[in-house]
């Protein structure tokens, strides 16, 4: 168990061991949820371009509409990230 201190500005530094284990970087976003005993924190994983490279290869085919392309892209992202 690691401890952190809340600053007067409401900020908390996440210990390096936890940041490294979760591959957190400056600018990453956390989701905080109230629970009966306090709160939980989870990482909001926003896809980066390099993370989704190649999953769109079947989205754009000759004769497909923009709506069909968009649906294929949304499906590919959902499949990759379990959404």
**Total beta-strand segments:** 2
Ends apart, CA distance between termini = 30 Å
Number of helices: 3
The chain-level mean pLDDT equals 83
Structural class: alpha+beta
Radius of gyration equals: 19 Å
Give the tally of structural domains.
2
Shape: elongated
Regions with pLDDT < 50 over 5+ consecutive residues? none
* Main sheet: strand order: 1-2
- Tell me the β content: 15-25%
CATH class category name of the largest domain = Mainly Beta
What is the CATH fold-level name of the largest domain?
A: Pemi-like Protein 1, Chain: D
Largest sheet: 2 strands, antiparallel
Helix content: 25-40%
Q: How do the helices and strands follow one another from N- to C-terminus?
A: HEEHH
- CATH architecture title of the largest domain: Ribbon
Model description:
- The protein has two domains: 1-46, Pemi-like Protein 1, Chain: D, CATH 2.10.260.10; 49-81, no CATH class.
- It has a two-stranded antiparallel ribbon.
- The model has no long low-confidence stretch (mean pLDDT 83).
- It has helices at residues 16-21, 49-52, 66-81; strands spanning 29-35, 38-44.
- The protein is of the alpha+beta class and 83 residues long.
- The relative contact order is 0.11.
């Amino acid at each position: 168990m690691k401890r952190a201190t809340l600053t007067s500005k409401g900020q908390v530094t996440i210990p390096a061991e936890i940041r490294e284990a979760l591959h957190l970087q400056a600018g990453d976003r956390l989701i905080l949820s109230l629970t009966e005993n306090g709160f939980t924190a989870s990482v909001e994983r926003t896809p980066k371009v390099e993370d989704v490279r190649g999953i769109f290869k079947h989205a754009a085919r000759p004769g497909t509409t923009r709506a069909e392309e968009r649906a294929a892209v949304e499906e590919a992202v959902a499949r990759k990230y379990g959404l």
